[in-house]
């Protein structure tokens, strides 16, 4: 069964940090580019960051540059997102997904709440 399982969400104060992880199974992880996509309450989906299959190239939405860092460990079939300097507007459900522009497989999401 193809599966993506996110973890690491929670509550954090503005300016704080969180690290999200995504565990992949059921497919050849290192064949696929991966992305993080988020959905804020009452809003649409927003692409956050992506990484090539070999980890050699990373991409970020403009508002995340310098604050978020995407990485992957192909030996462990995991995808991570280090989020620093978090803002209230980063509050959202964060999903990992296969692909960079077309997202064929999605995880169930993990909620990140940034609030004082």
A few lines on this structure:
With about 120 residues, the chain is mainly beta.
Commentary on this structure:
This protein is an all-beta fold. It contains no helices and 10 strands. Strands 2-10-9-4-5-6 form a 6-stranded mixed beta sheet, with no helix packed on it. It is globular and about 40 Å long.
Which helices and strands occur, and which strands form pairs?
Blueprint: E1 3-7, E2 10-12, E3 18-25, E4 34-39, E5 45-51, E6 58-60, E7 68-73, E8 78-83, E9 92-98, E10 110-114
Parallel strand pairs: 2-10
Antiparallel strand pairs: 1-3, 3-8, 4-5, 4-9, 5-6, 7-8, 9-10
Helix/strand-derived category reads: mainly beta
Level of helix content? under 10%
Gross geometry: globular
Profile the largest sheet: 6 strands, mixed
Mean pLDDT comes to 97
Whole-Å distance between the termini?
40 Å
Succession of helices and strands: EEEEEEEEEE
> What is the count of DSSP helices, taking H or I runs of 4+ residues?
0
Count of beta strands: 10
**Widest β-sheet, arrangement of strands:** 2-10-9-4-5-6
Assess the beta-strand content as a share of residues. over 45%
Which consecutive residue ranges, at least 5 long each, have pLDDT under 50? Answer: none
> What Rg do the Cα atoms give?
13 Å
């Amino acid at each position: 069964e193809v599966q993506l399982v996110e973890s690491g969400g929670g509550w954090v104060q503005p300016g704080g940090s969180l690290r999200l992880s995504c565990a992949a199974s059921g497919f050849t992880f290192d064949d696929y580019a991966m992305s993080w996509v988020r959905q804020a309450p009452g809003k649409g989906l927003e692409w956050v960051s992506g990484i090539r299959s070999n980890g050699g190239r990373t991409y970020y939405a403009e508002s995340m540059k310098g604050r978020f860092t995407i990485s992957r460990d192909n030996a462990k079939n995991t995808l991570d997102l280090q989020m620093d300097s978090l803002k209230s507007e980063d509050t959202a459900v964060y999903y990992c997904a296969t692909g960079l522009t077309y997202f064929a497989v999605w995880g169930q999401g993990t909620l990140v709440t940034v609030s004082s």
